Amino acid sequence: MRWMMLAVCGLALAACDVVPQWAGGTRPAAGVTDDVASENPDSAVETVEEVPEDPVEDTPEAEVSIGTLGRTVASLGNAAEPGLWLKTPLVSVEQSGRVYYDATNTTVDVTLIPIDGPATAGSRLSLAAMQALGAPLTGLPEVDVFGA
User: Fold this and answer.
1) 10 and 35 both lie in a single domain
2) Cβ–Cβ < 8 Å for 62, 92
3) Stretch (H or E) spanning 75
């Protein structure tokens, strides 16, 4: 029974064209048939341009902010979005940061997500971050934002 399951799995993998890739083989580019690949093997290989690992580094206008970014009024963001985040116009690129709420003297590490608007516009804070700060969910707490 065990050998039969192994054989079925092997056939399924071969049918999915996973085994040649996994075994170190290559497959022709999409839309290229085996006949074309055997006539001119160089034409079957697609040239892939090297993509930088972090495109943010290559963009001069998108800079990670470090230090105090400012104070903002935070409303409750989408409660269905998990995680600790602050959507704010104080940053131009997604980055890690911290939020400080002076009413409870609490700091929380969050992901700072850029949104359009002037720096004086309000921000949206995740449900988890509001709870971690001890901020009222129905209020509009003022928080200090720091880039990491």
Assistant:
1) yes
2) yes
3) strand 67-76
User: pLDDT digit string (tens) for 14-42?
Assistant: 555 444 444 444 444 444 444 444 455 55
Q: What is the DSSP letter of 61?
A: T
Task: Kindly state whether residues 77 and 140 are assigned to the same domain.
Answer: yes
Cα–Cα distance measured from residue 42 to residue 26, given in angstroms and rounded to the nearest whole number: 12
What is the number of domains present in the chain? 2
Q: Where are the alpha helices (DSSP H) in the chain?
A: 2-15, 19-22, 34-39, 55-58, 127-133
Distance of alpha carbon 22 from alpha carbon 31, whole angstroms: 21
Distance, CA of 133 to CA of 141 (rounded, Å): 10
Whole-structure pTM over 0.85, yes or no? no
Q: How far is CA 117 from CA 44, 67, 121, 143, in A?
A: 48, 21, 6, 18
